[in-house]
Design goal:
The protein has 12 helices and 8 strands. It has about 280 residues and is α+β, with helices and mostly antiparallel strands. It folds into 3 domains: about 60 residues, Winged helix-like DNA-binding domain superfamily/Winged helix DNA-binding domain (Arc Repressor Mutant, subunit A), CATH 1.10.10; about 60 residues, Iron dependent repressor, metal binding and dimerisation domain (Diphtheria Toxin Repressor, domain 2), CATH 1.10.60.10; about 80 residues, SH3 type barrels. The strands form 2 sheets. It has a 6-stranded antiparallel β-sheet with strand order 3-8-4-5-6-7. A two-stranded antiparallel ribbon has the order 1-2. Helix 2 packs across helix 5 and helix 5 packs across helix 6. It is globular.
Length: about 280
Amino acid sequence: MRLVKRPWLADSRRLEREAGSLRRDYHGAVSHRRDAGNPHPHPSESAQGYLLALRWMSSAGQPTMTAPLARRLGVSTQAASEMVGRLAHDGLVQVAGDRSLALTSTGLAAADTIFRRHALLEWLLTRVLGLGWAESDEEAARLQGAISPRVEAGIARLVGDPPTCPHGNPIDAASARRRPAGIALSDAEPGSQVTIYRITEEAEEDAELLVYLEQQGLVPGTPARIVDVSAARDSVTVDGPRGRSTMGLRPAALIRVLAGEADPALFHRVPEGVDALERLVSR
């Protein structure tokens, strides 16, 4: 088949990129607005991404400097510096003398709220609307800044007030303190029986990995057997509910497991009526 050049398509994509840039600038500008009765600024969608990234980097023990933050978010260091400046101005981020970054108590509270809403939306999208993991993560990111506390509470009641997101990550600090840490799948012993415990926040950013794990049934609460862990082949092989799966050591390091058969109470299940609703919607 002969490919036909379409110069208008390149122009259209360029205009879409420019429009997107303008929208981001606009959202950044309005990130300083203050809601009635709320003394703190309401973060824009872009700012929410920065707060969540800093929250994760801090909890993972990674250096919280502007350059690593920019790399994680896929933006230039200059763009990250400008956003950090706005967040610092709003009292959400503190910049130390060595230029390291830290969320203030207000910033941490905002990041925790954003993550909680994101997790609740993922439960709603996966268990009621029947979306896949990767799709629900993307849609939740779009919606998390738009729901009110009243809607947030309603979703929490509907999906059974989960202590984790669908991938098994604690929904808040209190849940994190009550839950075991688990070990990396890449550190499990060949021949051992394990239970898939959680798919870390870093792994959640890899849409292809999410799709693969969901297709293979390697979701939190699922028993599996470690067939092989090979540094030479850079691979981990697992027998799961849908057969044998193989992945690289790096993605395997982003998956946490528990030895043997884990306590079922660690894994949230939505109320039975919600499951029935999902079946009705997916018809």
